[in-house]
Design brief:
- With 257 residues, this protein is α+β, with helices and mostly antiparallel strands.
- Helices cover 41% and strands 26% of the residues.
């Protein structure tokens, strides 16, 4: 690999413009576009086709921040882009990038079309554990029957915990299905992320979602989330807009290092 150079890919844009943005990239590299037909790769040239790495945490934070800054800039100028994570590099000269764009043109165009005028948001929904437990104890027929049984405190506690866990799972499942149905009406795509339920945390996260949503639907989503947040014992966190990393099939856009 001695003597080889490479091209560092930040993102792909739906525009044929050929332009230099100046020395604003990682390590003050010149960032510019390489066009093919009506799409472009936003790039910088590498002296070697090796990843940018560092064992120093502050250096890595700076690398990631610099990388994301270029993607944010491209999004602001050209609309939704296909973003790449840190260290996506094509070996060789610019011709290799053009060839890659040529081979993947149809898939790239389809992907850009899918994410046009859309953004990714993260949604987390929490519930106050004590509020939920009190609701269950007040309304559960199982708990009412448990109080009528004449058992020792140890057996009563163990049985009560089992009933509580079963009732909690039912309640949480019911809430999640309802919230999912409400949110899904506002968004184009919705992904459920792993969430673990415990009896220990005061504020328990019951839903962790990523959604792809049209820009003109964001206010509608916020209104739905506000209604959920206004329910007693519930709290909603919304973050974004982000580039749609979780909704792009990168396996069809593979790059070589």
């Amino acid at each position: 690999m001695k003597g080889k150079k490479g091209t560092y890919i930040y993102c792909l844009i739906n525009n044929e413009i050929k332009i230099s943005f100046g020395n604003i990239g990682i390590k003050d590299k010149e960032v510019y576009t390489i066009p093919f037909k009506d799409i472009c790769a936003v790039v910088h040239r590498c002296e070697h086709p090796y990843p940018h790495e560092s064992e120093d945490r502050e250096d890595m934070v700076e690398l990631v921040t610099s990388h994301q800054h270029i993607i944010d800039m491209a999004t602001e100028k050209f609309g939704t882009v296909i973003p790449f994570n840190l260290n996506r590099i094509i070996e060789g000269k610019e011709e290799e990038v053009v060839e890659w764009l040529k081979k993947g043109y149809t898939k790239i165009k389809n992907t850009l079309k899918e994410v046009k005028d859309k953004a990714e948001f993260e949604i987390q929904i929490f519930i106050d554990r004590d509020v939920l437990i009190n609701r269950i104890k007040e309304g559960s027929e199982e708990f009412k029957r448990l109080k009528e049984l004449k058992m020792g405190p140890g057996k009563t506690y163990v049985l009560g915990q089992r009933i509580l866990r079963e009732e909690l799972e039912k309640k949480v499942d019911s809430f999640c299905k309802s919230f999912y149905a409400q949110i899904s009406k506002c968004v184009d795509k919705l992904q459920i992320k792993k969430t673990e339920w415990t009896l220990m945390e005061e504020k328990q996260r019951i839903m962790n979602l990523s959604c792809l949503i049209k820009n003109d639907k964001v206010d509608e989503l916020k209104a739905v989330l506000k209604k959920i947040d206004d329910l007693e014992g519930f709290h909603v966190c919304l973050s974004g807009p982000w580039q749609p990393y979780n909704f792009i099939s990168y396996s069809t856009l593979t790059l070589s290092y």
